[in-house]
Structures are given as structure tokens and as C-alpha cells.
Write a structure and sequence with these properties.
Length: 298
């Protein structure tokens, strides 16, 4: 049986180990997350609390922390903290849903809907005289890990450079890939731009790896001015999975029937439909029909 002195020494040793692992805490949210874990006696989960400090509303974390610390005879303050935080988030969501009941959320796909550029594989095949079938294995296998944020596109592409007859580096190939002149669907942009911003909130939903996500998000700032770009690489799931749209709904905080989504892919549309979102297949159903239906909703 350990003595009290041994237990205290073990705790101090553990604390030093945690601090050494997190010695590069340079941002305020990292410091806050660490301090929350320390006060809850949960340094073994400090990474989780740092992540929460980055993603969760600060006021909720502070309220939950105060509640957990003051809770009488609490053996597991971390568990009390998590319970209270969930309750606060639930209350907030219900309040916001009531406040947002008159909002209409429009979700726009990018490729072949909002932007009408030729697919990269077709463009590359044509410009470099490479059989498109040579590119197919990459897009059917390795590229999927890039789309869900598991792998870095530049690192993955290195093994394909010779086979694809690319004369430059992986960085240069990515630059060629993403930094093309964008051909916007101007009719759609004009319709979106004319909407009442107090009622209609526009978001982008796209399957992209991180480099093209960053490039397109910046390019669309002035053209479409979306509230946010929801990308598969950041949500860690592709649009063909209903989990993608569940994550979207969690962030926009409205009922599913207040959300209108236009895409040209049946798999993506079916996934959105499963969570109750109104769907429109482009180009068979136009942005005009979407806006009309959204405007007619009581």
C-alpha cells in the first residue's frame, strides 16, 4: 500500500510529465484548456480540454467549471463538468432554434454547381496527354484520405509524380491543380446576392482536401460571401454520409426543414434528405425553385 508521501510524489511526477508534453502552449485557448483540466484534476485528459477550449463557447466552459468545482462531495469533477456543459449547450441550442425559426439556410455545392470549371482529372489528362485511366486509382483510393483530412495531399502526390509525367514538385502540382481561373455560375451568384441577408444565410458544403478548401474559401469571400464553408476535410467525413449534414445542422442551429441544399450528386442529396433537409438536384432543379420554396415556407 502506498504512503501519502508516495501518492503525492506520483502526482507531482505525473504533473511534470504533462507539462513537458504541453510545453509548447502558446495560445490563450491552450492555456485555458490546461487550467480547466488542472482544476478538475483531469490532467490525463488535458488534450481533450484544450480542444474543447478551442471549439466550445468560453462562457459555457466557465459556468460548467464553476458548477463542478462547487459541487458538494464530487468524486469526479470532470464528469460533473461534462454533464453541466452539455446541459448549457442544450439550453443554448433550444433558445437559438426559437430565435432562428424565421431563418432560411441555403447550402451550396461547389464543383459543377457554383463553379463550372472542368474537373482536374480531365484538364490534366488533356493538357499533359495522360490517359485519364492512369489517374483513376489515385482518385478512387488515396485521394479519399485527403478529402477526409486523414492525409496531406502534397505528401500523397509524391509517389504519383513520375507516373503522371509531372516534371515539377508535389507543391507545384498542387498549385497548378487549385490555382486555376474559376468559372463562376454567375446566374446562381446573382440570385444569392439578391436575397435578404436577415432571413437567408448561405453556406458552402463541399468535398475538398485542405489546400483547395483554403483557396476556394478565400475566392468565394467576395463572390458569394458565405457564412462558412463546410468542407469534408474539416468535418472528417464526406457528404455522402448523413453524419456530414448532422454536423452542419448542429452548427447552424435550426430545424432541418429550414435548410435547403442544392447539389448535382444523388449520393450527397440522399444523405442530406435522410436528416430532413430539403434537397434540389442541379441542373434539373434550379436555384430559382429553391428560393421560391424557401420563401413560401410559413
Amino acid at each position: 500500500m502506498q504512503s501519502i508521501q508516495d501518492i503525492l510524489q506520483d502526482k507531482e511526477k505525473f504533473k511534470k510529465e504533462v507539462l513537458s508534453k504541453h510545453k509548447y502552449v502558446t495560445k490563450e485557448f491552450q492555456d485555458f484548456g490546461y487550467r480547466v483540466a488542472l482544476k478538475l484534476g483531469a490532467l490525463n485528459q488535458v488534450s481533450m480540454y484544450i480542444r474543447m477550449a478551442k471549439e466550445k463557447p468560453r462562457v459555457h466552459m466557465e459556468q460548467a467549471l464553476s458548477f463542478a468545482i462547487d459541487y458538494p462531495n464530487a468524486k469526479d469533477k470532470g464528469r460533473i463538468f461534462m454533464w453541466k456543459l452539455k446541459e448549457l449547450e442544450k439550453e443554448r441550442n433550444e433558445t437559438l432554434k426559437t430565435r432562428n425559426k424565421y431563418l432560411r439556410i441555403i447550402l451550396l455545392d461547389i464543383d459543377e454547381v457554383l463553379i463550372l470549371n472542368e474537373r482536374f482529372s480531365k484538364r490534366y489528362s488533356r493538357e499533359f496527354n495522360v490517359d485519364i485511366e492512369m489517374l483513376r486509382p489515385f482518385f478512387e483510393e488515396a485521394f479519399n484520405d485527403c478529402l477526409t483530412g486523414k492525409k496531406d495531399l502534397k505528401k500523397v502526390l509524391k509517389k504519383y509524380l513520375k507516373e503522371w509525367r509531372w516534371q515539377g514538385t508535389a507543391d507545384e502540382l498542387v498549385k497548378y491543380w487549385i490555382e486555376e481561373d474559376l468559372k463562376y455560375n454567375q446566374e446562381m451568384i446573382d440570385k444569392i446576392s439578391g436575397l435578404n441577408k436577415d432571413i437567408y444565410k448561405v453556406y458552402i458544403c463541399t468535398n475538398q482536401e485542405k489546400y483547395r478548401t483554403e483557396y476556394l474559401a478565400e475566392a468565394l469571400k467576395t463572390k458569394v460571401k458565405p457564412v462558412k464553408v463546410f468542407s469534408s476535410c474539416e468535418l472528417k467525413v464526406k457528404k455522402k454520409d448523413p453524419k456530414f449534414f448532422k454536423k452542419v445542422l448542429k452548427e447552424v442551429i435550426v430545424e432541418p426543414d429550414q435548410v435547403y441544399y442544392i447539389d448535382n450528386d444523388d449520393n450527397n442529396l440522399n444523405a442530406a434528405k435522410k436528416v430532413g433537409i430539403n434537397i434540389y438536384k442541379y441542373p434539373d432543379q434550379s436555384i430559382n425553385q429553391l428560393i421560391k420554396d424557401a420563401g413560401n415556407k410559413p
